[in-house]
Write a structure and sequence with these properties.
This protein has 18 helices and four strands. It has 439 residues and is mainly alpha-helical. The longest helix is centred in the last third of the chain and has 35 residues.
Length: 439
């Protein structure tokens, strides 16, 4: 137990010091990602051939911006590898130090009922994991964005939001753990199927309440002011059969300078939200394309479909947990003082394997996400008739991503098609619809 406390406190203090030092430094300026200025003549001369047109767009991005985008993407790989390593080290520390057994015994003394013991233990566990992972999360969510010039926020602001996010998601995790631990004990032969159902219900509930109750905790989400932008969006929505009566905007600029938009919720709670960055920094063609893309997600029911796909992948994860936990406990259970997967002290093993499955299944989840994003791109271009809008938008944050990763990188790690792939799709649409779109 002492080793766990020392490690958690050291990780917390190191994160505070690191984040504070970076926060005290000036934010480096972003470079111009479109150093090559173009006029109407450039668009008139843009090749009709999709591959040649794609190259023309990519060549507008300066080498320095491409280099910085590649370097920033590399930090994602460092983050991923570090998260896996810290996860395995954290679970090993909790189990082999005897902390798991000690925390279980402590929970037994403090509360009388088994479900309460599971809940208390889960709070201990999730707190410990949050602290142990805080250094890499500080790097991933704050340091690398700040050093790249993508955020102006302070570390304390980031940390407060990180703690709030942890508290919200932990409430769902604790409920899920209590129910699944009970199923493991009472239905040892069929708990995987029941646990998958628990996951489906909790994830659906989270998505359902997110627009009204969770997202407003982190951002101010307000109706877009009346004006030509709002009318253009509502007109676009109505033209595509979306019963939209309001457009929402969130103050995402307080967190990042990068551009985005999203659709959240399901059923009657669904809403399409634009970032204030996107509204302020994109011209009409890009603005309409982005909005049409998000409408595509809504019309194509990508959120409920995503919940179904995610649940199926999670079901495979529970199979993986059952297989892995059985072998780990058979080998180390006596040393850990753990009788089986239904033992409260086995919870770190369960949770560690679940998180490990999240990393292992990234190619599956990313493939599903990329397919949905490609569908939304195609829908957005068809709805807005703005293929150039997509191409322009894809090079707007060119210093934040590798625009042309290898097929293996894209397959393993990208939840969106690469910029090259998305520009090529837009240029292919342009070539096939030349008579409708002009140059």
């Amino acid at each position: 137990m002492k080793a766990l406390l020392v490690a958690a406190m050291a990780a917390f203090l190191a994160s505070i010091v690191w984040g504070s030092i970076v926060s005290a430094q000036p934010v480096p300026p972003r470079i111009n990602v479109r150093a090559i200025v173009v006029d109407s003549g450039w668009y008139s001369a843009l090749p009709l051939n999709p591959a040649a047109a794609t190259e023309a767009y990519l060549q507008r991005v300066p080498a320095e911006a491409r280099s910085r985008g590649d370097a920033f993407t590399a930090t994602r790989y460092i983050t991923l590898a570090s998260r896996v390593a810290i996860l395995m080290a954290s679970v090993a520390l909790i189990m082999f130090s005897g902390a798991a057994a000690s925390l279980r015994d402590l929970a037994r003394r403090w509360v009388p009922y088994l479900w309460m013991q599971d809940a208390l233990f889960a709070l201990f566990l999730f707190t410990a994991l949050f602290l142990l992972n805080l250094p890499i999360e500080t790097y991933a969510g704050f340091v690398r964005l700040r050093l790249a010039g993508f955020t102006q926020r302070t570390y304390l602001d980031w940390l407060g939001e990180a703690v709030l996010g942890w508290a919200v998601i932990t409430a769902f995790y604790v409920v899920g753990v209590i129910l699944i631990m009970r199923l493991i004990r009472r239905r040892p032969g069929s708990w995987v199927g029941w646990a998958t159902l628990v996951y489906l219900v909790l994830s659906s509930f989270y998505v359902l309440i997110s627009p009204q109750y969770i997202e407003p905790l982190f951002n101010s989400i307000t109706p877009l002011a009346d004006g030509p932008e709002k009318e253009a969006i509502l007109s676009l929505a109505r033209a595509n059969g979306v019963p939209a009566h309001e457009v929402f905007v969130r103050d995402a600029s307080r967190q990042s300078d990068l551009l985005n938009a999203h659709v959240s919720g399901i059923g009657g709670t669904a809403q399409i939200v634009l970032d204030d960055n996107t509204i302020a920094k994109t011209p009409k063609a890009e603005f309409e394309l982005v909005m049409a893309h998000e409408i595509g997600h809504y019309v194509l029911a990508h959120i409920p479909k995503g919940i179904v796909f995610d649940t199926l992948v999670s079901g495979l994860g529970f199979v993986f947990i059952g297989w892995g936990a059985q072998r780990l406990i058979a080998r180390h259970g006596r040393r850990w003082k753990v009788a089986g997967l239904g033992d409260t002290a086995a919870m770190p093993v369960f949770w560690g394997l679940l998180l490990l499955w999240g990393f292992v299944s990234l190619p599956i989840n990313n493939s599903i996400s990329r397919e949905q994003e490609a569908e939304a791109d195609n829908y957005g271009i068809n709805a807005s008739r703005q293929p150039l809008g997509l191409a322009e938008f894809m090079i707007r944050d060119a210093d934040a991503a590798n625009l042309d990763p290898s097929w293996l990188e894209e397959w393993l790690l990208y939840d969106h098609p690469s910029a090259r792939q998305r520009i090529f799709a837009a240029m292919r649409w342009r070539a096939e619809h030349r008579s409708a779109t002009g140059p």
